[in-house]
Amino acid sequence: MKIKAVMLIVCALLAVSVSAGSTGAVVNSLDPTLVRDLFLIERFEEDRSTESNARLTAFGLPTEVDPELKVFLHFNHLPAGKLMNDLTRMGVKLFERSWIPAVGAHNTGFMLARVRSSRIKELIAGGGVVRITA
Questions:
Q1: How far is 40 from 9, CA to CA, in rounded Å?
Q2: How far apart are CA 88 and CA 120, in angstroms?
Q3: Distance between CA 68 and CA 17 in Å, rounded?
Q4: Most CB atoms closer than 10 Å: which of 58, 60, 66, 83?
Q5: How far apart are CA 42 and CA 33, in angstroms?
Q6: Tell me, what's the pLDDT at 22?
């Protein structure tokens, strides 16, 4: 990858991680790798150049509009009831049999999910999901 692209990604990560207000809370709940992936996807949707496409491909990301990402959703408790309905309504595909409860130093449980990139920040803002990792 070109040094300019790497510097652009690093600057974007720094800018997003120090931003004030509610965005800061959202970023603190996202894995740095996921922040990078979302940044690359947003840039690709703005500029569908061959270079942007190659950047996504280099990081193993799909080159479609609003791609579905494989992530781990972290919860304080096994999701049920209203939260499950909300997640389903948002188009989140949960792999319920992958649930790992909170253990020891890990204070949240998590499960594998497939989520559209456009829904990531909304998931965190909703309050039921406490962290998202890639």
A1: 8
A2: 14
A3: 23
A4: 83
A5: 14
A6: 36
Instruction: Collect all residues with Cβ–Cβ distance below 8 Å to 40 and sequence separation of at least 6.
Output: 9, 52, 55, 56, 59, 61
Both tokens assigned to 5: 């692209």
Query: What is the pLDDT averaged over residues 72-79?
Result: 93
Q: What is the dihedral of CA 38, 41, 42, 45, to 10 degrees?
A: -160
Q: What is the pLDDT of residue 104?
A: 86
The residue to which tokens 């992530």 are assigned: 71
CA–CA separation, 104 vs 79, rounded Å? 20
pLDDT in tens, 93-128: 999 999 999 998 888 999 999 999 999 989 988 888
* C-alpha–C-alpha distance, residues 125 and 133, integer Å: 15
Tell me the per-residue pLDDT of 1-34, one tens digit each, with 9 for 90 and over. Answer: 565 555 556 545 544 443 333 334 444 789 899 9
- CA-CA distance, 121 to 39, in Å (whole number)? 12
Token pair for 95: 């792999």
Tokens describing residue 24: 């800061």
